[in-house]
Write a structure and sequence with these properties.
single chain; Phosphoribosyl-aminoimidazole Synthetase, Chain A, domain 2; six-stranded mixed β-sheet; 12 strands; 33% helix
């Protein structure tokens, strides 16, 4: 079962095939967004690109093979992965799988930032402000139809809003410069911000159990990918940052929006 909370509206619906969640429940175990620790491995299920594909299809794009791949991904229940996480925690006697959420409206990047922020609040009121997520773009799985759409510049309508969280990516400008001449890689980077429909789950897993977790997911027919880990910021890096109005050169001179600058929640490699 997957339940969730979307802004001020609370959703408490059981889905047999499609799932949208904020909190993941396996058999006898609840996983929340917080709880990650430095050194934990980041695991993602399902490929990214559902939202972009359907945006392209609405414009006459896409294809039969790509559509079938997208539908198959949407039909995969998240309950299986939730049960695997709960089983591993029961077998180890503690939280080997520390936290989880789904990848839906805020995209992988938005939900990852949420989890990092929640995980910085640890026991006894102490903060892990020197923790951030490091993800490897090459290890993240994407749907062909989603990548094809992104290469053409086609994304879901919420892409522009979600893209504002780029202020939490410590090396965003570096990523743009590095991949500006590679349409495929750039498309994949931008898809990290794109909303997903019936997306997969995002887990923080203790490093010692990460391989066993991914292996058991595969046994149960779920593709789980280790895409990165939680790392400690260097002494000269900031984990906080401040909100500020900035000029968005990509949208034109004089366009201002409020984003978090230098927050260092995520680093992409």
């Amino acid at each position: 079962m997957v339940v969730g909370e979307r802004r001020r509206e609370t959703v408490n619906i059981i889905f047999k095939r499609f799932a949208v969640s904020r909190t993941v429940k396996g058999k006898g175990s609840w996983l929340t967004k917080g709880g990650g620790r430095i050194g934990d491995v980041i695991v993602v299920t399902k490929k990214l690109g559902v939202g972009a594909y359907f945006a392209d299809e609405m414009r006459g794009g896409g294809g039969a093979r790509e559509r079938e791949q997208v539908i198959d991904s949407m039909m995969e229940s998240n309950k299986i992965a939730g049960d695997v996480a709960a089983k591993l925690n029961k077998e180890t006697g503690e939280n080997a799988v520390r936290s989880a959420t789904d990848v839906t409206g805020f995209g992988l990047m938005g939900h990852l930032i949420e989890m990092v922020k929640a995980s910085r609040k640890v026991e006894e009121g102490k903060m892990q402000t020197k923790m951030r997520a490091k993800i490897n773009l090459e290890k993240i799985a994407f749907l062909n139809g989603g990548v094809n759409a992104a290469v053409k510049g086609v994304f879901s309508s919420l892409q522009e809003e979600n893209y504002k969280c780029r202020g939490g990516v410590s090396n965003h400008d570096e990523c743009l410069a590095r991949w500006e001449k590679d349409d495929q890689i750039m498309a994949k980077y931008l898809l990290l911000f794109n909303p997903e429909t019936s997306g997969g789950l995002l887990f923080f897993v203790r490093a010692a159990e990460a391989d066993a977790f991914v292996k058991e997911l595969a046994v149960q027919g779920v593709e789980g990918v280790k895409v990165g880990d939680l790392e400690e910021l260097g002494e000269d890096e900031s984990g906080e940052g401040e909100y500020c109005a900035v000029v968005d050169k990509e949208k034109g001179t004089g366009t201002k929006e409020k984003i978090r600058k230098g927050a260092d929640f995520v680093r992409v490699v």
